[in-house]
Amino acid sequence: MKRNFLTIAFSLLVVSSFGQNAQEFVNDLLSKMTLDEKIGQLNQYNGDWEATGKITPEGDKEKQIKEGHVGSMLNVMGVDKTRKLEEIALQSRLHIPLIFGKDVIHGFRTTFPIPLGEVASWDLALIEKSAHIAATEAAAYGIHWTFAPMVDIARDPRWGRVMEGAGEDTYLGCMVAKARVKGFQGEGLGHVDAVMACAKHFAAYGAAVGGRDYNSVDMSLRQLNETYLPPFKAAVDAGVATLMNSFNDINGIPATGNRYILREKLKTEWGFKGFVVSDWGSIGEMISHGYAKDGYDAALKAITAGSDMDMESRCYRDYLKQLVSDGKVPIAFIDEAVKRILLKKYELGLFSDPYRFCNEGREKQQTNNQENRMLAREIGEKSIVLLKNEPFNGKPQLPLSKQTKTIAFIGPFVKATVANHGFWAIAFPDDSLRIISQFDGIKNQLDKNSTLLYAKGCNINDNDQSGFAEAIDAAKQSDVAILSLGEGYDMSGEAKSRSNLQFPGVQEALLKAVCATGKPVILLINAGRPLIFNWASDNVPTIVYTWWLGTEAGNSIADVLFGNYNPSGKLPISFPRSEGQIPVYYNYYNTGRPAKNDDDKFYVSAYIDLQNSPKYAFGYGLSYTSFHIGNLQLSSGKLAMKGGKLNVTVDVKNSGNYDGEEVVQLYVRDLVGCVVRPVRELKGFQKIFLKKGETQTVNFCLTPDDLKFYDNDLQYINEAGDYEVFVGNSSLAELKGHFELTE
Ligand code: NOJ
Q1: Using CA atoms, how far apart are residues 186 and 163, in angstroms rounded to an integer?
Q2: How does DSSP classify residue 41?
Q3: Which residue lies with its CA nearest to atom 1 of ligand 1?
Q4: What whole-number distance in Å separates Cα of residue 240 and Cα of residue 194?
Q5: Is 703 strand, coil or helix?
Q6: Residue 186 — left, alpha, or beta (φ > 0 → left; ψ -120 to 50 → alpha)?
Q7: How many Cβ atoms are within 10 Å of 303's Cβ, its own excluded?
Q8: Helix locations, 209-278, DSSP H
Q9: Residues 471, 513: contact at Cβ < 8 Å?
Q10: Which long-range contacts does 225-230 make (Cβ < 8 Å, 24+ apart)?
Q11: Residues 660, 568 contacting (CB under 8 angstroms)
């Protein structure tokens, strides 16, 4: 009976939208809405109760949905649940469907490497694909909207959320932002395998002082525009449907109430047509910031600044009506926000079929999709970064022979399953059965006649050394010991800032004890951020950075260790030598007293007790083969500012003994500017595959747009003058050319 009523309601709606374009439809609907219904569209609730409509401490949400007072929900998933709630929403006077959002950050049923790890692949096509698979799986479970990608530039590895973004570089960050938005939104909203993406956190969240989560940000507007905003602009240009506010203030104004970034930049200058959702409670948090007096004031400041939807603070729900009747908020502000939201509902196709994301068949099909797992395995392989592979007893340990007689696999992560997800994965009850542990990955590929010994050695983060003896014993019986160490998967992510980035607990002591056996050691490092592991770097011959690789972690790691895949990952963020060196990033300014080399301390910009370079540079990563990059050629010594093009070519030779991939990176330096310019900036990269012995010419095309920057008046300009160009396989590239940008 209820269904029949709903079916009629829909068909009326579909009929009423027939022949209308999106704008007309939305305007028409808006004209029928009461103020209460409008405000309802701006209200987003967490799905913290059963879909059957339990009374929650703050009232009956089912009733509120039925009355049209809720526009969206987060954290509800499964077609069963979303259908039930959608049915309730459709009983509202105007039958406006709900949008369901969720943090689908690096996969859904199939998890992929944590976002920072995945960026180490520098493989934009694969990054796009993984986002698309995440979207397909999430959409099949009733989700319309992911709160991803996080596009915050992060130069401070103390900040736990570095794991969620694309690292320290603005150019790479823009490319990845585009790829992820395209992946999530697929062929466009309206397709049932596309979800709305959400570029977050707008803005500068990654620049929190001291790397402490939710902390303040104080920076020049020039820096904001040049370094932190471009990935958001790239996401907007790629058609991102939504943005999310950040928790921080920027120069004293909380981002949620920041008119400059929301109205002036995003909605006016960039022409963004989607909507902005607050972060969880961030409208109400403006009271704690000391920027709003109370909820009334917070709602006023957020809506005026341009925040459209209130996630969980209830300030819009409770105060917007009063603000309108007090004449504080023009109805035009409310209408604008509502229209933006309704437009996305329309584009998602929810008005023509609110249940289009509620298909049990599709949900089942995506529950354990083998093809998706294959791709996760491939991306996992490509995300791994080989940091060190020096000879031990005259020979590098990797790739490891599958016939190695006895291997000791030691460490607290070896048999872990769920941990391989990393932070921000969606938990399913069967996770521990579906995730390939590192132990199983190695075991499955090791020759039948070989032996794989296991010893946990220690826990992740305590002082217990009682497992050391067993680990040492296992190492002594083996030809090689693989140690899997790192930080806990839940030590990075939201609210997971760390002041100490070393291996927690007694892990380093375990490593030293195993190394003392004299056996060759291969160290795997599991982490959501750059860790500091100087003793290991200086003493262990082979180090592999594995991040957190997701569902197929064990298989990806085994593929790399045994050489089925020759590693090609490159660091998307600099690795510091000590916490005191943070922030350390490759595109710094030269200063008036630059250090000439790593040990230069004589009245230069340096620490007297530390080498000047990072431990591992941005863009760095090894392969089992070697590549020689040479013969740098520029098509001209000049690049014309009006419509000019400059081709930069290099010859890349695979000069080692294995086929493999290399990421060829191009950096430029603007030698003199009206404001000082970074010592180098990434402006292009290409990932190429070369058979051993093969040579390929790689061509980059530079245009004046690549050389633009913000001057002190915030004008985005080109400036004539001299530039250097560097090409190589990391930010330390030495091969150098020179050209002039001419008027
Ligand atoms: C807070 C986080 O900062 C944000 O990234 C996330 O999307 C929301 N919570 C919703 O879970």
Answers
A1: 24
A2: H
A3: 280
A4: 12
A5: coil
A6: left
A7: 28
A8: 221-223, 230-237, 259
A9: yes
A10: 225/710, 225/714, 225/716, 226/170, 226/709, 226/710, 227/153, 227/170, 228/152, 228/153, 228/170, 228/203, 228/204, 229/203, 229/261, 229/265, 230/170, 230/173, 230/174
A11: yes
Question: What is the CA(404)–ligand 1 centre distance, in A?
Answer: 46
Pick from 134, 210, 214, 138: which is nearest to 179 by CA? 134
Spell out the residues 6+ positions from residue 193 whose beta carbon is closer than 8 angstroms to its own. Answer: 132, 135, 136, 139, 140, 186
148 CA: nearest ligand 1 atom: 7
**Most informative mutation of 99, 103, 276 for ligand 1 (most atoms within 8 A of CB):** 103
Joined together, the tokens standing for residue 544 give 């592999």
Instruction: Indicate the top mutation candidate among 44, 77, 147 to test ligand 1's pocket, ranked by most ligand atoms within 8 A of CB.
Output: 147
Question: What is the residue with the minimal CA distance to atom 4 of ligand 1?
Answer: 279
Sorting pLDDT into bands at 50, 70 and 90, what band is 48?
Answer: low
How distant, in Å, are the alpha carbons of 340, 423, 501, 634 from that of 721? 44, 46, 42, 16
In order of 632, 664, 731, the CA distances from 728 in angstroms are 10, 6, 7
Which residues have a Cβ under 8 Å from the Cβ of 573 and sit 6 or more positions away?
116, 154, 155, 157, 162, 167, 168, 529, 530, 585, 618
Catalytic residue among 103, 123, 169, 279: 279
Q: Closest by alpha carbon to 68, among 105, 37, 22?
A: 37
Are the beta carbons of 139 and 193 closer than 8 angstroms?
Answer: yes
Is-contact 153 173, C-beta < 8 A?
A: yes
Q: Hey, whose CA ends up nearest to atom 11 of ligand 1?
A: 103
pTM: 0.96
Q: pLDDT digits over 485-514, tens only?
A: 999 999 999 999 999 999 999 999 999 999
Catalytic (active site) residue 279: yes
With CA atoms as reference, report the closest residue to 310 among 74, 60, 48.
Answer: 74
Report, as an integer, the average pLDDT of 51-73: 77
Q: Tell me, what's the pLDDT at 12? A: 39
Q: Which residues line ligand 1 (CB under 6 A)?
A: 103, 147, 200, 279-280, 494
Q: Render pLDDT for 279-337 as a digit per residue (tens, 0 to 9).
A: 999 999 999 999 999 999 999 999 999 999 999 999 999 999 999 999 999 999 999 99
pLDDT class of 217 with cuts at 50, 70, 90:
very high
First to last CA, the chain: 74
CA dihedral for 275, 39, 352, 81, sign (positive or negative): positive
What is the Cα–Cα distance from 721 to 743, expressed in whole angstroms? Answer: 9
| Domains identified in the chain and CATH numbers | 385-568 (3.40.50.1700), 627-742 (2.60.40.10)
The per-residue pLDDT for range 634-679, each reduced to its tens digit, is: 999 999 999 999 999 999 999 999 999 999 999 999 999 999 999 9
| Spacing, Cα 73 to ligand 1 middle (Å) | 13
- Residue whose token pair is 């689908």: 104
The b/e string for 499-536 (b: 16+ C-beta within 10 A; e otherwise) is eebbbbbbbbebbebbbebebbbbbbbbbbbbbbbeeb
- Which pair of structure tokens corresponds to residue 261? 């970034």
